[in-house]
Every structure is written in structure tokens, then in C-alpha cells.
Amino acid sequence: xxxxxxxxxxxxxxxxxxxxxxxxxxxxxxxxxxxxxxxxxxxxxxxxxxxxxxxxxxxxxxxxxxxxxxxxxxxxxxxxxxxxxxxxxxxxxxxxxxxxxxxxxxxxxxxxxxxxxxxxxxxxxxxxxxxxxxxxxxxxxxxxxxxxxxxxxxxxxxxxxxxxxxxxxxxxxxxxxxxxxxxxxxxxxxxxxxxxxxxxxxxxxxxxxxxxxxxxxxxxxxxxxxxxxxxxxxxxxxxxxxxxxxxxxxxxxxxxxxxxxxxxxxxxxxxxxxxxxxxxxxxxxxxxxxxxxxxxxxxxxxxxxx
Length: 306
Description:
Largest sheet: 8 strands, mixed
Shape: globular
Helix content: 25-40%
Strand content: 5-15%
Structural class: alpha/beta
Mean pLDDT: 90
Number of strands: 8
Number of helices: 8
CATH superfamily of the largest domain: Alpha/Beta hydrolase fold, catalytic domain
Order of helices and strands: HHHEEEHEHEHEEHEH
Radius of gyration: 19 Å
Distance between the termini: 21 Å
CATH topology of the largest domain: Rossmann fold
Number of domains: 2
């Protein structure tokens, strides 16, 4: 009964949010930014040039944001322009696109490409960055994590979050990025690690991704009936924590298809602990298992649901 009431409450909250405008600060997409410069092809030899070009673009975007009175965005961009940080690309327009590297990509033998879900933008970049840093630490030496904020993510409380439109638009760009990455690092073990609506993006792109593993976590579904329908040679993994609200969304199966952690979907299910929807890459079972999968090891059974 309690679970049923939670589902009704969640559905009501989402419907109410969709029906009315969201008040507060300026929308992230409303903050102006200059067009980005052209980037050279992604190669080990061009990494330093791409990092420098991105830094120049971030600083230009910071100046424009500050000039228009957007202090929060300007502060975020000032931190992103730190010389110690490594961005393969950056575009501050329309909420922002950024592809950041954690670790030494030139020496990496194991690479995780994180594809974030809804409500991820330059103003809320901290969660993606924090998870990327923790995953990189869990992976250890000769690894890299790439935070791929390469698309305009939908707001959680929007009609866009209930359709595949944003994912379909993002899929060609994810495929192109992974293709470039594979060309630059042909011997590396590459995995895409896809959270929430980001898993919808990965599902749309799956057939064109030359990766070893596709890791879905906190996923509402990937718009197919089973893992075989993704038409990928990659091993498909799925995990969901016990306190993730996405399991209680009553219309998820209608919009996004078979639950990825269900037996009928056919993914390899891994233990993801008892955290919430945004907790997978915090210290715990889920983070450890994602790191093990990216490293080519079997995930731990500890904390796995019966």
C-alpha cells in the first residue's frame, strides 16, 4: 500500500510540475555565451591544444556571463577555467556543453565515458564532476573518466523528460565522440556509463558505439524490449539502488520500454546498494561495481537485491 501511494504521489508531483511554470533564477539556457572556437581532431598529440582552446572558450564565456550579471554562472566558469582542469571541448550556449577529462587520457588503458541524465548543465555541473572524480579514483592508475555533457539535457519536470526527443538528438554526437576516442585510443578498454535519462541516450546510440561495456544505472528504460534489441556487441549491464525513485514512476514502461533490471530485459544486473537516484557514484557498492565493470572485472554480489 505504501509503495502504491508513493507512486501516486510521484505521478501527481510530476504532472503538477509539468502543468505550471518553474519560478526562480534565470534558466541556464538564458545565459549568453560566445560561439566556441574550432577544435582539432581528437588525437593524443592534440590533447594539449584542445585543453588550451577549451580554457580560452571558458574564460570568454565567463566574461560574457559576468557582463550580463549572471554571477553564479560566472563563478562556475571561473572554477572550470583552472589550468589544472582538462576539457576536450566546451560550448557555453543553451545551458552549456562540456567534455571534461579526469586522469591522463594519453596513458589510459581503461576509459569510462559518463553520460549524465536530466537537469545536468553548467549551473549544476558539480554532481557530474564529483561522480567523475570518485570513479576515476576507484579505477586507479592508467585510467581516465570523461564526463560527456555533450547534449542539452531535459529538465526532470518537463515534457522533454518523458520522450526520447532529446536522446535521439544526442545519440549521433555520442557516437561521433566515441568514434573519435576509439581512433585516438585504439587499444583502450572503453565503456559508456549512463545515468538516468543518459541511459536513454546510450540506448539510442548503442548500435553505433564501439565499446566493451554499456552500463545503465538509475535507468527508466532504453526504449527497447530487451538487451538484444540494442544491436550491440558490448556487454549490457544494469543496476538500480533500492531507494531510487525511478522504480516508482508508473508510466516509465509505457514511455521507455522494459525495465533494464528485470529478468526479461536480459542485461547483466549488478548490485547497486541502497542509495537514492543521484547517489550511484558516491562511495559504496554501486561505485565499486561500476569501477569493476569498467576495469573488466566481475562485480561484487554484496548488496545485490534478491
